[in-house]
Amino acid sequence: MARTIHQTSYRRDKPFVVVDCGALPETLLESELFGHVKGAFTGAAGAKSGLFEEADGGTIFLDEIADTSPTFQAKLLRVLQEGEIKRVGGTQPVKIDVRVVSATNKDLTDLVKAKAFRQDLYYRLAVLPVHLPPLRDRRVDIPLLVAKFIADSCQRHRQDLRQVSGEAMRALTAAPWPGNVRELQHYIERAVVTTTHTELTCADLVELGSHPQDADLRTVGRGAARQAERTRILQALQQTSGNRVQAARVLKISRASLYNKLHELGIQ
User: Fold this and answer.
1) What H or E segment, with its residue span, contains residue 199?
2) Domains and their CATH numbers in the chain
3) Which of the two ends of the chain, N or C, has the fewest CB atoms closer than 10 A to its terminal CB?
4) With contact defined as beta carbons under 8 Å apart, do 104 and 64 qualify?
5) How far apart are CA 57 and CA 203, in angstroms?
């Protein structure tokens, strides 16, 4: 979403810089964002501009902003208020013109009440808050995301474009995805790089092995197959005006198999 905001704004021709705040320790995070002067710390053999300067004129996306320390939050607040940064170890301010977009999977209002996140910084960041529901609450988006992630992964790994079977897509759409879009993206990429055929199936998905939701996805896959089977049998019965002998012929199974399926699927 942050990238979309950038690409649809007047800043789209300027840099878009992504920072995972939760992946860097505080000292390194400051140096990465604000830059440093020569001799600012051990190993600082020369001056280095930070990511705020690199994003000048464009957008900087601060992911997992809730994972930052109070000290860093105070420095970030100054950047937002003054529109300038100071390199680590430096004294001269550097003016910047950057749109700041931040994200977190935590409730910042709760953190503010618990005094775990600065209230003044929260109000600076929450000029236009956007609540993005978890993927499980917007399953209609999953087929579109799957198609995009497959196309991106195939292009990145120089493979022919893959397709997804209807059954596999139903399984993906019904899966819980506690890690939301990022989890789905990584899962699709793993499926692309570990298979070779042109169409991804449920068998491909459940055989990826290390996925934390393998059991759930397997169950979902079976449920999707069961639902597809039920739908096909009902279509055959409707096509033959309820004649089970003829329906069995349409389905190319024996009468006994059809009766067993009717009982198993609860079809009267």
Assistant:
1) strand 199-200
2) 1-126 (3.40.50.300), 135-213 (1.10.8.60), 216-267 (1.10.10)
3) C
4) yes
5) 48
Which residues, in sequence order, are bridge partners of residue 59?
A: 16, 99
How many CA atoms lie less than 13 Å away from 180 in the CB half-sphere?
8
- pLDDT > 70 in the chain, percent: 91
User: How high is the pLDDT of residue 193?
Assistant: 84
Q: 182: which 2 tokens?
A: 């990022």
Q: Is the pLDDT of residue 81 over 70?
A: yes
**CA 155-181-33 angle, 5° bins:** 85
In the chain, the largest separation of any two C-alpha atoms, in whole Å, equals: 88
CA-to-CA separations, 77 to 93, 96, 148, 156, in angstroms, rounded: 15, 14, 36, 38
Q: How much is the pTM?
A: 0.64
Is it the case that residue 264 has pLDDT exceeding 70?
yes
Sequence length of the chain is 268
Q: At a CB cut-off of 8 Å and minimum separation 6, what does 129 contact?
A: none
